[in-house]
Every structure is written in C-alpha cells, then in structure tokens.
C-alpha cells in the first residue's frame, strides 16, 4: 500500500480530527489517520524503547538522516514501518527482518515541511511499538528538482551500489548507498522512478532482510542495517521500472 497525501486531502483530514491522541510524545492530529491506514487500527503503544533520531533542523530537506534504534525491545520483530506524517508521500519504508537482523536501521529521507517522523515495530505478541521524533524544516524537499538528474552521465551510474561492512562488537553495520534518482512524481513531467524492493542476503543465500521502499526515500538512497555476527552479504534491488541490480558487500 502506498499513500500520497495532497494538500487538499491533508487539510480535510486535519479538519476532521479535532485533537491529538493522549500520550503521543509528538502530538499530531494525523496520528489516528495513520493508525487506521497503516496499522489497521491494531493495538499499539508509544514506546521510548523505540528511539528515533533526526537532526533538529533539516539543513538539506532532500537528504534528512533518520536513525531508529529499538535494541531495547525484547521479542521477535515481525515488521517495521517508517513514515513522515506531513509529507505528501508519507511512507518511507517497510522492513521485514530475519532473526539475524538487529533492531536498528538508518535511512535518508525527503521532507516537505516540519513533520513528526514515526517508526513502528510490530512484535511477535501482535503489539505495535511506536517511536517518534520531530524534524523542523524550511520545506520543499519532496517537490524540489532532482540533483541526480542534473549530473552528467547519471544514467550510466544507475544502480551502482557502494557498500561496506563495519565490525561493531559482535555485530556488523552494513551501509549501502545506491545510485538512483528516486523520482517521486511531484516534479512536472518526471514520472515516478524509484527503487521499491530490496533484499539483503548472506553469501549462502539466506534472507537477512526484505524491504519495501517508497519515493519519500532520498535520491541516491543510503540505508544502514545491523547484522548479528560478521557475515559477508549480497544486496539485490529492483526499481518500479523493473530494472534489477545486485552487489556483493564483503
């Protein structure tokens, strides 16, 4: 499911919801809307064990780092969702982790205006654990023209993956950057063109993580995951035009 919120719809939603939800650490009248549309009205708790870190102000609204650390949670993760509530395209990613993935991820996103950013972890007890942060922004990160498309030869670099694995205690941080414009369809005459699927596997082919990506992810997306142990990994990607890319991350 992909959500695209136009400004008319946004104003309609805001007018229909009078107050923020009690206990919300980032009070927002949009919470009930996303609770219904993304979490299917399932049981949830605002949980400070889901730590969402963003800069206090988006100096470049096209490239905003978001880090989510939920290693304080116990139990198995079924699914992770990240969204930016007041973006015209709010959804950022869905993550389906294996047991070999730690409860941590980082990604760069676009923001159109100041907004709450949410990360929700569906645990094996059926409860969503939600962390929140707020990013201030001057605006325009989603509707700004592409920087990638202005660079000569970007088509030849399409799908190039720059990845590295860093030992971090008993785990590895796997950082991946993909050359891709991640067009979101909000700039005139440029249709949506973005990486929408990714899989991280070990060298034996076992799935470590599967991701659904949305066009709120920044151009030349950068994603960081933490994997238990020190495995060599391989990344597979597909964009919404059917192009497939892959790379080894030793």
What is the helix tally? Answer: 3
How many structural domains? Answer: 1
Query: Approximately what portion of the residues adopt beta-strand conformation?
Result: 35-45%
Query: For the CA atoms, what is the radius of gyration?
Result: 18 Å
Task: Summarize the entry for a quick read.
With 250 residues, this protein is mostly beta strands.
What does this structure look like?
With 250 residues, this protein is mostly beta strands. The protein has one domain (31-249): SoxY domain (Immunoglobulin-like). It has 3 helices and 16 strands. It has helices at residues 7-16, 31-37, 154-157, and strands at 44-46, 51-53, 57-58, 64-69, 77-84, 91-97, 101-109, 115-123, 128-137, 161-168, 171-178, 195-202, 207-213, 222-228, 233-239, 244-249. Strands 1, 3, 5, 6, 8, 9, 12, 13, 15 and 16 form a 10-stranded mixed sheet that branches. The protein has a 6-stranded antiparallel sheet with strand order 2-4-7-14-11-10, with no helix packed on it. Strand 15 and strand 16 (244-249) form a beta hairpin. The longest helix has 10 residues, at 7-16. The model has no long low-confidence stretch (mean pLDDT 92).
């Amino acid at each position: 499911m992909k959500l695209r919120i136009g400004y008319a719809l946004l104003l309609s939603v805001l007018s229909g919801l009078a107050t923020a939800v009690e206990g919300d650490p980032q009070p927002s009248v949009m919470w009930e809307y996303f609770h219904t549309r993304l979490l299917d009205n399932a049981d949830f708790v605002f949980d400070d064990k889901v730590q969402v870190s963003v800069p206090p102000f988006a100096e470049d609204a096209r490239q905003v780092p978001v880090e989510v650390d939920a290693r304080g949670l116990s139990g198995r993760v079924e699914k992770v969702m990240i969204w930016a509530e007041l973006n015209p395209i709010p959804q950022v990613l869905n993550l389906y982790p294996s047991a070999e993935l730690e409860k941590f991820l980082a990604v760069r996103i676009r923001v159109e205006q100041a907004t709450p950013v949410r990360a929700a972890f569906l645990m094996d007890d059926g409860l969503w654990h939600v962390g929140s942060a707020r990013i201030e922004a001057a605006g325009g990160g989603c509707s700004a023209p592409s920087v990638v498309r202005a660079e000569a030869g970007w088509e030849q670099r399409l799908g190039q993956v720059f990845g590295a694995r860093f030992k971090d205690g008993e785990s590895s941080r796997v950082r991946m950057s993909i050359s891709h414009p991640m067009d979101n369809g909000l700039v005139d005459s440029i249709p949506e063109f973005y990486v929408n699927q990714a899989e991280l596997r070990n060298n034996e082919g076992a799935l470590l993580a599967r991701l659904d990506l949305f066009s709120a992810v920044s151009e030349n997306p950068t994603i960081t995951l933490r994997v238990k142990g020190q495995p060599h990994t391989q990344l597979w990607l597909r964009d919404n035009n059917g192009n497939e890319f892959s790379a080894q991350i030793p």
